[in-house]
Structures are given as C-alpha cells and as structure tokens.
Design brief:
Elements: E1 10-12, E2 19-21, H1 23-61, H2 68-71, H3 76-81, H4 85-128, H5 133-150
Antiparallel strand pairs: 1-2
Helix pairs in contact: 1-4, 1-5
Length: 157
C-alpha cells in the first residue's frame, strides 16, 4: 500500500469487493464517495436543525398556561363552570409526561443520527487514507457541496 498520494485509477476502497480498476470505475467511485460526503454534511445540518427545533419547543413549553380562575373571578356562574385546580393537575402531569417522552424520542433520534454521522465520517476518512488523489478530491468537493447546499437550509426552518 502506498503512503503517498497517487493519481492512478486502481484502488481498493473500504472493502475487498470495492476494488477499482480503470477510469470508468474510478469515476463511479469518486461519484459515490462525493454523494456519501454530501450525505455526511446533510446529517450534520439535520442534527443542528433538530437541536434548534428542540430548543424552540422547550422555550414554548416554558410559557405558563393562562389562569382560568383569575379570568372568571367576577361571576359565580362562570366560576362554577371553570376548571378547578384539582382537575388541572392530571392534565399538567400528562403534558409534562408527553413533553418528557418527546424529549426522550428526540434524544434517541439525535443519538441515531450521531452514530450514523460518526460511522460515515470514519468511512470517508478511510477512503481518504487510500491515498488516491481522485478519491481525496471527491471527499473535498462533496464536503464543499454538502455545506453549500445544507447550511442555508437552516435559515428556512
């Protein structure tokens, strides 16, 4: 195995079955590596987006609910129809449980995305460590394209 960059069209990437011989195979391999790198960058964007979304949702859930009792103090008929404090407790408890479940689910999704991002990142690193110039350029260009496409999408959410 070479320890310097070479611009040949023969390389083995990641697995024995991904053995490239010839220019057509190299072009296809560079394209696949480029797409994997774009996907890697989009994973990073999705994790940032999920983080912003969870912060936004937690900021909205911190808003205290309106107090029905203070709105209905003047009328005894309206007071009789309004919800008592004891009947609100289970509703608040259910909202907190749902919020906790939602946070746990969001954390699970972010953990899964993180695992996928780490695995893909190491695979791309191993592709670069093949010391093939074309594969290296595919990773660099894929990273640039992924960043260029992905990060402006954060402003639209």
């Amino acid at each position: 195995m070479h320890m310097t960059f070479e611009a040949g069209s023969s390389v083995t990437l990641l697995f024995d079955f991904w053995d490239v011989h010839g220019p057509a195979g190299m072009v296809l391999s560079v394209f696949v590596v480029l797409l994997l790198t774009v996907f890697y960058e989009l994973l990073k964007v999705s994790r940032v987006w999920l983080g912003k979304r969870s912060e936004h949702q937690s900021a909205q859930s911190d808003i205290p609910p309106s107090n029905h009792f203070s709105e209905c103090q003047g009328s005894s008929a309206a007071l009789a129809r309004s919800l008592s404090e004891s009947s609100l407790a289970p509703v608040e408890q259910t909202v907190q449980t749902l919020s906790r479940m939602k946070r746990l689910q969001l954390h699970g999704i972010q953990t899964s995305l993180h695992i996928l991002q780490v695995v893909l990142g190491y695979m791309l690193m191993l592709c670069v460590m093949s010391y093939n110039t074309w594969i290296f350029l595919g990773v660099i260009i894929g990273s640039v394209l992924g960043y260029f496409i992905g990060f402006p999408l954060l402003d639209t959410f």
